């Protein structure tokens, strides 16, 4: 899976991992945290490496969410609830994408 291709299509600023100096909201941080390997004949037959997209916004932002959804067309993905980060005074929504 080409994470940068998906994120470029979303049209929002993004970084892998964490921002040192975050831009103005909304923005994205993404991770490819682990793999789930599918084995056959005593070897890895397929590597499934999910992409985790974290959308940070100052309010519930359907426009930003729709940009991500449009960029994910053709992929299998799930979206979590939007969570308010009290100490950061912002919201985060998680997307998990599989190839």
TrEMBL record:
Species this protein is from: Gehongia tenuis
Name of the molecule in the record: Uncharacterized protein
Source organism superkingdom: Bacteria
